[in-house]
Amino acid sequence: APAQIAVTGLAVMGRNLARNLARNGFRVAVHNRSQARTDALIKEFGHEGEFTPAADLPELVASLEQPRKIIIMVKAGEPTDAVIDELVPLLDKGDIVVDAGNAHFADTRRREDALREKGLHFVGAGVSGGEEGALNGPSIMPGGSPESYAALEPMLTKIAAHVNGEPCCVHVGPDGAGHFVKMLHNGIEYADMQLIAEAYDLLRHVLGLSATEIAGVFREWNSGDLESFLIEITAEVLSQVDESTGQPFVDMVLDQAEQKGTGRWTVQVALDLGIPVSGMAEAVFARSLSGDVVRRKAAAGVLPGPSEAKADVDRDAFIDDVRHALYSSKLVAYAQGFDAIRAASDQYGWNIDLGAMAKIWRGGCIIRARFLDRIKEAYDRDANLPSLLVDDYFKDAVANGQDAWRRVVATAATVGVPAPGFSAALSYYDGLRAERLPAALIQGLRDLFGAHTYHRVDREGAFHLDWSGDRKEQSA
Ligand code: NDP
């Protein structure tokens, strides 16, 4: 029988996705630019299901039932375009091309447009969960047309992660919506990891706890509101001992965080949308700073820190304060992330169901967390919630933790431990809740130096002061 679906690009992600499909009983045609990966897949895992190896794309296309469904899982960017260009002339109207790589959503919109003109469906599908998720059940965020989703749904929902029997896969919206949401997921992941790293750093430097002791703290946190994959693996990494030195593994790792770019994209896009995503921005900047070896070397041990580098805190109380700071800051990062999704959804007419996004992130993906149930519930209560932070549940959570959060930020500043994520999140929270912001002064300055005009609190209209003349107000 012809294959039901094809995967081209058999590096870690594509290979595991193909195996996941085969293990779930689907007949999968497989192809890779260099044949060795195809051969290796068949040799090692051919027994797992019905695979049809193909030596080239024409052979791959010929092995499929119609309408054809082809998943591209190659390096994002030009390689994806190269594969699409080679594939398109081989396809017939109604065929479905899925890009499951980490494409920029603007590329996905362009590709969707181009293929639609040829009568083909193009689905940009975000896939999260890394290697392990691809094999055992990822979180899947497909965009594209509703017709193409209807055709893919039985397969995608089967291979996705499941939480309480529900698949972590839903049609996100048209064209680039799926890749946009996947990008945002990665941005949130950046913020989450930065906050975790700050919590670790504070416990280490303020309390002098060992990596192993901090692993225990995270393990305990993982049984409460913070329960999540990232908190769980933090405990795992912190308790790891380096084999060759006997030192904590984390102490033997070079402290320069790398990035592949999805966090940076998120921040760039959010800047264009005009949505503050300070949690993600600080996370991206913190990674950049960590990798800025030249400047760090020039400053380390040269720039003075505080004279009073010890904080007088109670061990257990401080641990609990840091937990609150982490939870509240994390909540801010998610609130900002969902604001960005809503803004993009409005701008591009995607009509994204925010609660459904929280739902499909509960399993499979890197940011899977207990907390996402609370977000889903918040949007169930009010689909038009202006910010997650004003939902009653989250409002109370922050209200309970804010004094602790403030103490942690103050302590970090006092002892000179960088906590850009915690402090930016707190500033955002205070900015959001402020009845009046100093933006009024900024408007005044703008009007003085650039005649940019201002609005008044008591009257409609735009105004300008004749700053260099009689300082009389005029209607602009
Ligand atoms: P890589 O991103 O390392 O890409 C390697 C694959 O791309 C190989 O199959 C390679 O073929 C193929 N390729 C590269 N250039 C071309 C080209 N010009 N034409 C045809 N094929 C080409 O693989 P991953 O499995 O890590 O990731 C695949 C996609 O999934 C990427 O878009 C990635 O961003 C995304 N992703 C990755 C995750 C991860 O955890 N790794 C998680 C989620 C998404 P060849 O063997 O011939 O070199």
Arithmetic mean pLDDT: 97
The number of distinct β-strands equals 12
Silhouette: globular
Give the distinct bound molecules: NADPH dihydro-nicotinamide-adenine-dinucleotide phosphate
Work out the strand percent.
Answer: 5-15%
Question: Roughly how much helix do the residues carry, as a percent range?
Answer: 55-70%
Span of the ends, CA to CA:
73 Å
User: Strands of the biggest beta sheet: in what spatial order?
Assistant: 3-2-1-4-5-6-7
What is the tally of helical segments? Answer: 20
Low-confidence stretches: none
Structural class: alpha/beta
Question: What is the CA-atom radius of gyration, in angstroms?
Answer: 25 Å
Main sheet properties: 7 strands, mixed
Structure description:
By secondary structure, the chain is an alpha/beta fold. The chain is built from 20 helices and twelve strands. It has helices at 12-23, 35-45, 57-62, 78-87, 105-117, 130-136, 146-159, 177-207, 211-221, 229-239, 249-252, 262-273, 278-291, 293-299, 315-348, 354-360, 371-381, 392-415, 420-433, 439-450, and strands spanning 5-8, 28-31, 51-53, 69-72, 96-99, 121-128, 139-142, 162-163, 166-167, 454-455, 462-465, 473-475. The strands form three sheets. The protein has a seven-stranded mixed β-sheet, sandwiched between helices. It has a three-stranded antiparallel β-sheet with strand order 10-11-12. A two-stranded antiparallel ribbon has the order 8-9. Helix 4 (78-87) links the parallel strand 4 (69-72) and strand 5 (96-99). Helix 1 packs parallel to helix 6. It is globular, with a radius of gyration of 25 Å. The protein binds NADPH dihydro-nicotinamide-adenine-dinucleotide phosphate (NDP). The site of NADPH dihydro-nicotinamide-adenine-dinucleotide phosphate (NDP) has 23 residues, from helix 1, helix 4, strand 6 and helix 6.
